[in-house]
Amino acid sequence: MTDITPVSADALTNGKAQMVPTEVAQEYDLLPKLIPHLDRHLIFPLLEFLSGQEGEEGSEITRTKYELLKQTNMTDYLASLWQELNDSDEVPEEFLKKRDEVLQRLELFGSETSKIDELLSDDSVVSNLRSDKVANLKFLETNHDISIQNIDMLYDYGRFQYSCGSYANAAHLLDQFRILSTDNDKVTSATWGKLACDILTTQWDVVMEEVNKVKESIETKLFNNPLAQLQHRTWLIHWTLFPFFNYEPARDTITDLLFSPAFINTIQTNCPWILRYLAAAVITNRSRTRNTGQYQKQLKDLVRVVRQEGHEYRDPVTDFIKALYIDFDFETAQSTLSSADKVLKGDFFLSAAAESFVEAARHLISESYCKIHQRIDIGDLSKRLGLGADEGEKWIVNLIRDTRMDGKLDYQEGTVLMNHPANSVYQQVCTTPFLSLRLNLGIC
Known about the structure:
27 helices
């Protein structure tokens, strides 16, 4: 039990979080902003990701890992970090002593919770439990001599298992505690602990269930404490980054959550750097939901928030949104796309989505460009997209086919003639290309 090692970056991202660092990625590194809102066990995979990058000081990261986990009960792993830092093969006595203490406490917890654990595994007992927790406590006390102290022991044991890095066992104990306990504060704490355990064991479908439970707890139990709600929503936003880009079915659900009024206000008030992840999600969602009203609304909301928060936070990802949908500057959009690619590859949560982001962003640049030009030079557009002439030609043909735009390719002239539908009287009033594009994109 004491020889458990923390969860690695590869384990959480299925080996997809790999990158070569760049100055741009290091300049826009969000790790210092993310760490205050994450549990120490959730921070470790981010440090692992960082330690795998060339140019990073290995000893500094190792020391940070040591300081991060020093308060946990992963004694064997901590001893190995100490040996690495001190270039020693010897294990100090303090680690051996703590190891023995941890094993003794685990044995004690196990013996003290064995009875209630067995009862909760007995179908005949579980079938007598109801939604009324007070009645359940009375039933267990009368028929099985189980007290509130016995139930609280499940909570303490779950927390201890979590500190040892035994996340599956901790999740089981905390879930059992939630079923029986009437202590609302501890139940809330157990729910956060269960969420962390499920993230670290990559049980993504269960993670999404726990996210909803935490959200409901924030809305109901903290309704009369706006400051606490703000803080808890901030934590939940950061914790949802783990399933956001690691579990495809969660993408739409979390995007909708972050765009809901309470959470988008939290982002603007407390953590505007989350706009990077929201922008990446909206852009990469293009291929799935491009023609729906929901996607257009999300894009419109994203542009609005990026415009409002530009003075508080910006990076190449949000700069791309600004260049394309606020300034309508195609050259800047293309130039920032290269930097955005490097930033995404240097981000633990987004490194696996970098390629799909660039692909979707190129489509958006092309679509926007085609909507305000009637005659398009293939060579010029290919250059703007950072593509060769032949590759650019294939790209534009596929774009017209996929988006069903009315365009005709002139191979001899190397141009595309776009047949735009006649504008309404209202659109004709907007004589500039920028205003016309804003109407076409639904941003006006």
